Amino acid sequence: MTSRKAELAENLREVEERIAAACRAAGRARDEVKLVAITKTFPASDVALLAELGVTDVGENRDQEAGPKAAEVPGLRWHMVGRLQRNKARSVVGWAHEVQSVDSARLADALAKAVRAARDAQIRDDPLDVLIQASLDDDPERGGCPLAELDALAARIARTEELRLRGLMAVAPLGADPAAAFERLARAGERLRKDHPNAADLSAGMSHDLEQAITHGSTCVRVGTALLGGRGLASP
User: Fold this and answer.
1) DSSP state of 30
2) Which 3 state secondary structure label does DSSP give 152?
3) Coiled coil: which residue ranges (predicted)?
4) Domains in the chain with CATH codes
């Protein structure tokens, strides 16, 4: 086993142990929580090694980085987790199986239009799974739909044939108690499921706070640093 593969294998083992322990503590089954490996700034060779180790879901923050990686390492489920500009919608639907960062009606409309175009071009024939990114701190610089506007955005997405609403995604506010933030997200998810029972996913928790997220019902943790290592000061 190469030194890098061995390093990733050990990191993956530790992350899996953390997820399993958090699930046990919360009285949940391990298979209730999906692990998405966040590979931004790391090469496609690392993605390929993670795939060899059994990782099936990969998340990226930037379209221009993700597209080539997805082409180089096929067979995985790719997630767009970063803030997305509407003019990137057509490119993103060419590689993403799920967009976790939908935070406005205009972006939802752009993605739906891009899926229609992809269908016409026979690039894809399935709807695009989407999560609404919920803002837990109302900071416009960090993205996210205000909680008071979730219902309207969910209804907009649900009316389209091209998008399939799967649930909510959020990032804990900087400097705040992540447990309190994830509790707010869980309550928002409960409200969402009253009108959209199939939108049961909660994507919350990263390398530093995945335990708190799992405690409050996260079904998807997005882990980068704990799996792949630090990215350096120049990382996006």
Assistant:
1) G
2) helix
3) 5-32
4) 4-226 (3.20.20.10)
Nearest partner of 8 among 53, 61, 59, 44, judged by Cα: 53
> From residue 221, how far is each of 137, 164, 213 by CA, in Å?
20, 20, 8
DSSP state of 191: H
Query: Considering the entire predicted model, what is its pTM?
Result: 0.95
Helices (H), the chain: 3-26, 44-52, 63-72, 89-92, 105-120, 150-158, 178-195, 210-215, 225-228
On whether the CB atoms of residues 207 and 226 are closer than 8 A, the answer is: yes
**19: helix, coil or strand?**
helix
Kindly report, residue by residue over 146-189, the tens digit of the pLDDT: 999 999 999 999 999 999 999 999 999 988 899 999 999 999 99
Phi, psi (degrees; rounded to nearest 5) at 197: -60, -20
Between CA 199 and CA 196 the distance in angstroms is 6
Task: For residues 173 and 135, give the distance between their C-alpha atoms in angstroms, rounded to a whole number.
Answer: 9
At residue 53's C-alpha, the angle toward residues 50 and 58, to 5°, is 35
Structure tokens at 145: 């739909």
- Please check whether residue 34 is in contact with residue 10, taking contact to mean a CB–CB distance below 8 angstroms: no
- CA nearest neighbour of 224 among 66, 101, 47, 20: 47
Return contacts of 156-161, CB within 8 angstroms, 24+ apart: 156/105, 156/108, 156/109, 157/102, 157/108, 157/130, 157/132, 158/196, 160/108, 160/112, 161/127
